[in-house]
Amino acid sequence: MNLARFDLVSIRLAVACAQTGSLTAAARDSHLALAAASRRIRELEGALGDTLFERHARGLLPTAAGRVFVKHGLTLLQTMEHLDGELADLRQGIARHIRLCASSAAISQFLPTLLAQYGRLHPQVRVDLEEQVSETVVTTLREGRADVAVFVEGPDTSGLATRLFREDELVLVLPAKHPLAGKKTPIAFADTLDEEWISLTAGAAMLQQQQQAALAANRPLKLRMQVRSFDAVCHMVASGLGIAVLPKGASLPIAKTMKLGWRPLSDAWAQRRLLVATAAGDNEAAIVSLVDFLAAGAQPSQKAKAGRRNK
After folding, report:
1. 37-65: per-residue pLDDT in tens?
2. Integer CA distances (angstroms), 236 to 175, 241, 271, 282, in order
């Protein structure tokens, strides 16, 4: 493959062809004459030695090779946009971008205030935040697509340097008139397994803890719906579609607004640790500074310590 024959205009044009299904629309969006756009697509296909699009009366349809090209083309275009953005920031005094990937629990309960404080203390550093479930957070860090990760303890952390970030507590969230509501005495998770459940998508630490607890009790977890946010979980619960386990700090404000009930769990796994991690051996000053700042407020609670001793 002759990479010298590739240019960003042609790559952007091919991506636009796939997105619009029309060479005419893609040429217009790319500010190219139709004949010039057609020639560029033919040249790309010649350089690749493969057909990118099937031509139909109704437009263009990506081939298998076209889908692969568009996937990587999008990644390349996004990388170039990030490069342009970081260079612009550098001219304005932003010396370093740090890529932080974090779980929903970390973002909803702790990170907004902390990142605002850090930004005021270090105006020359910009933290770019991405939200993922804990398993994906760790994968993103391990693959080098993040500099720092914050996630719920549980995923394999081999090859990573980890520190305690914060602790949280999982509680049962349910409709206010549910038979299990109205009490603040802790309930065992195993005693709730006759219910239907609303949870987050696969890879969320919370869902994995529920599945493991159900397996330990030799009972099925009746998982009815999976959504991507705590707010969406609470909306499903409020509609009477099931009950849920959510972090107390994140869910109680939502539960109060929606007039939902909540109840503590007596299980030791309901007391969780959140970790902040980097790749092992990453001693860059800006990254160390951010990790030190994030870990500074970590204070293991006595309740959590007792829970871990009793495991």
Report:
1. 999 999 888 888 899 999 888 889 999 99
2. 10, 6, 24, 42
Pick the closest to residue 66 from 54, 81, 57, 84 (CA basis).
54
Q: What is the pLDDT of residue 59?
A: 85
pLDDT at 307: 47
| DSSP category for residue 270 | G
Q: What are the angstrom distances between the C-alpha of 67 and each of 3, 52, 296?
A: 19, 8, 46
What does the H/E/C string look like for 49-91? CCCCEEEECCEEEECHHHHHHHHHHHHHHHHHHHHHHHHHHHH
In angstroms, the CA 41 to CA 17 distance is: 9
pTM: 0.71
Residue found by looking up tokens 């889908």 in the block: 67
**160-175/260-264 β-pairing:** antiparallel
Retrieve residue 139's tokens: 């994968």
Name the burial class of residue 170, with classes exposed (0-12), middle (13-18) and buried (19+) by CB atoms within 10 angstroms of its CB. Answer: buried
